Amino acid sequence: MLYKLFRDTHLLFGLFCCLFLLMYGVSAVQMAHNKWFNLRPDVTTVDVTLPAQQADARAVARELMEGSGLSGDLSGVHAAPENLSFNIVRPGTVDQVTYSLATGETMIRENRAGFMGMMNRLHHAAGFAGTYWWDNPWGVFIAIVSAGLFVMGITGIYLWFRIHTERVMGAILLILSLGYSLTLLVLIRTAH
Amino acid sequence: MLTRWTKKIHMYAGLLNFTILMVFGVAGMRATLQTDRLGATDVLTRPFRVPPNLDDLQAAQSAYQFLNPALSQPPTQRSVHRDAQNDVTFDMGTINGPRTVTLIENQNELRIETHHNRLSAFIDNMHATTVNTTNPDIRIRMWSWYTEFSIWSLIFMSLSGVYLWLASRPGYRWAQICFGVGSAGFVLLYILVR
Fold it and tell me: What is the dihedral sign for C-alpha B175, B176, B179, B182?
């Protein structure tokens, strides 16, 4: 009865988390071996004309968000006498904006991350304090996946232990792994 | 035969990666709950005379060599500056938390301010320690090899887990539902974020 419960729990959590874990694994490979991947974004440029003589980047950004459908967080504001430049950033996409005060001509250079770039951004997205409405459902999924790692680890240990023919080999591997990893954790945590 | 060996290797991979799965779980929960990173702060001073005729970076590097702190790397131009009292100061990031060293030259001493990371922040840093770390410390490098192994294991276990399900109980309704909901949620959110 307990075996069946643990086996099903392990399976169900694993299947639910599968694509998220693959995303974490693939993006971790990208971060550990960034030379293997080309993360150059796709770049497109759009020119729009806004009313001239706006000296506040925040006002220009809002106008672009409302008029040109841009969305994201405002960052990297640089105000020069003749133009304003800033970025509008959301996961996987950076819109670099240059606005001419004299003419109102505005260039929007959109840098859109490719698949690996998106994996990287998603790897770093978690929690419920984000700007966008989808931050919350994403945060719920990540919370479940994080809890799922504990559940899968613990149920996995139980499932292994129930296979009598694998106890010796499994115990050797588990002891080696715990010895190596816990020793390093303690040594690093206590290093001064 | 393939299923039997896949199950065996899946299980062995899980046992070898048990600790780091827990580390990944803690890192995920910390990111979800957005807990504070820093805990207590310690301040201590040590006598140190800056050798003559050094510029600020060289003075900071000299102090670093004197302290020989674990898990950190020598100061660079970007990390060295003068504070409001005109004392040279530099920051050192370590997995256990940042340290700020100040060379108080008129008293011939070093002030070392250590901000200790909370355990969850320490574990979060550990999960992010991969083989591209430039830290030369052998303990960090050994941990990064474990992380590297775990990354590939995670990919393998995700794929082999799906295979083992399809090879054993593909008609199990709850499994189909969980796989469907999880995958659809991921794909939908990916598209929305994109």
Answer: negative
**Which of A82-91, A121-130, B38-47, B130-139 has the least mean pLDDT?**
A121-130
pLDDT tens digit sequence for A87-115? 998 877 899 999 999 999 999 999 988 88
Q: Is residue B163 within 8 angstroms of chain A, CB to CB? A: no
- Cβ of residue B167 closer than 8 Å to a chain A Cβ: no
pLDDT in tens, A125-169: 887 776 677 778 889 999 999 999 999 999 999 999 999 999 999
- Give CA–CA dist A143/B30, Å, rounded: 9
Residue A61 buriedness (CB in 10 A; 0-12 / 13-18 / 19+): buried
Partner residue facing A178 (CB), from B11, B19, B190: B19
CB atoms within 10 A of CB A118: 19
User: Can you say how many angstroms the Cα of residue A125 is from the centroid of all Cα atoms in its chain?
Assistant: 4
If contacts are CB pairs under 8 Å, which of residues 126-155 in chain B contact chain A? 126, 130-132, 137, 139-140, 142-143, 146-148, 151-152, 154-155
Decide: helix, strand or coil at residue A75. Answer: strand
- Residue A91's contacts (CB-CB under 8 Å, 6 or more residues apart) are A118, A121, A122, A125, B193
Taking the model in full, what pTM does it have?
0.85
In this predicted model, what pLDDT tens digit does every residue of B67-91 receive, in sequence order?
988 888 889 988 899 999 899 999 9
Query: Nearest CA to CA, how far is A149 from chain B (Å)?
Result: 5
Cβ contact, residue pair A91, B25, below 8 Å: no
